[in-house]
UniProtKB/TrEMBL annotation:
Pathway(s) it belongs to: Cofactor biosynthesis; adenosylcobalamin biosynthesis
Identification of the protein by name: Precorrin-6x reductase
PROSITE patterns per record: COBK_CBIJ
Record key words, sorted: Cobalamin biosynthesis, Oxidoreductase
Lineage start: Archaea, Methanobacteriati, Methanobacteriota, Methanomada group, Methanococci
GO biological process: cobalamin biosynthetic process
Signal peptide range in chain numbering: none
Species of origin: Methanocaldococcus villosus KIN24-T80
Pfam family of the protein (one): CbiJ
Annotated GO MF terms: precorrin-6A reductase activity
Amino acid sequence: MGGTRDSKIIGEKLKKYKIIYTATTEYGAMLGKDFAYKIISKPLDKEDLKKVIEDYKVKLLIDATHPFAVNASRNAIDVCKELGIEYIRFERECEKINHENVIYVKNFEEAFNIAKNFNRIFFMAGIKNLKRAVEVLGDKIIARVLPISVMEALKLLPQQNIVAMYGTFSKGLNRELILNYKCDAIITKESGEFGGFKEKVYGAIEANAKVIIVEKPKLDYPKVFYDIDELVKEVNKIYINSYQSF
């Protein structure tokens, strides 16, 4: 289960196996094109996931979805338990940043309520939560989205409030964008190294903007790795000890 750059790196390191790669978006699916035996590009509920596992005789599931894709992870854990197959989670490490300009919150509603106190907010938390952000904060929002999401963003904001770019981005570029749009706060997610998290935070700090960070959800994963190479070693060990082929 992928859709992230983490999953692309993992897949490339495990491409000797027959990989069924799933992602919820067309962009996420493209990340699997160089190593996947089969790509499934659509959201999967529990029954869909169970059918994929049974149809392709999947013996091990690697969950490398986004840290905020908690429903997908919960479904995967439940289905693996029900079918008796191995579940392995890759989780991005993300150390806390202590600074007077940084505010951690538990959810987006809390983030939006705090953001009401600022004049202009650079929204760096993805298209999925933009609709609610605009409902609460209106045209205070400057939203950075992937180019593929521009049409969806235009339904919510005028074009001058949308920055369409493909990342990740350097600290310097983040700083200059925040300054250029005269934002005094940003909203972002605790997304880890591959999400350009530190570059967003420190870019905002250098622009003297408040940083409102939505903490990543905490799940009780049956087996979790924070290092890709260690995960790959575990998969190879499981293969050698348990299966003749995947």
